[in-house]
Structure formats: C-alpha cells, structure tokens
UniProtKB/TrEMBL annotation:
GO molecular function, one term: protein tyrosine phosphatase activity
Protein name in the entry: Tyrosine-protein phosphatase domain-containing protein
SUPFAM superfamilies linked to this entry: (Phosphotyrosine protein) phosphatases II
Domain Tyrosine-protein phosphatase: 1-94
PROSITE patterns in the record: TYR_PHOSPHATASE_2, TYR_PHOSPHATASE_PTP
InterPro entries linked: Prot-tyrosine_phosphatase-like (IPR029021), Protein-Tyr_Phosphatase (IPR050348), PTP_cat (IPR000242), Tyr_Pase_cat (IPR003595), Tyr_Pase_dom (IPR000387)
Organism: Caenorhabditis brenneri (Nematode worm)
Amino acid sequence: MWPIGNKVPLSTTGLVDVIKMARSWRKRAPDRPETKPIIVMSHNGVSRVGIYIGANICIDQMDIDHEVDVFHAVKMMRINRPQLIDMKDEYKYL
C-alpha cells in the first residue's frame, strides 16, 4: 500500500509486483501485445505515475543494457512531463 501524502513506500516490492502483473496482462493481450499501451493514473497524475513510469523505463534499460541510468531515465521523462519525479524521495526510491 502506498503511504498517504507525498511519501514513498519503504519497500519497492509492491511496485515491482504491480509492474510484473501489468506486463503479464499485456503479454496475454491478443493481437500484438507490444502495441497495447498501459495506462497509469494517480490522484494528482504525477508523483506515483512518475515513479511507475520511471521504474518501467529502468527495468527496460536493465533488460536491454544490463545497467540502469536513473538520472537519464528521469531526465527523458521530464522532457514531456516536467512535474514527474520532482521530489528527492521519489528520485531515491527509483
């Protein structure tokens, strides 16, 4: 469960589980699952969504490059959505 307010969870386990579930559902989607977007929403549209999207980007980086550049991932996300990952705790959580 995500803490109330602008706090991040103590553990990343829940987030990783949700990402795994979403990716599993997407793979089972008929007709080219890679074209099916995953829509993510949160109460303000930035804090939790930013962490979810950032975590997905980092997981993809790890799968492809076998390393993760969190700074670059956040920088790329913020080109289109400057409000994403705007608190130090969110950045550290990633």
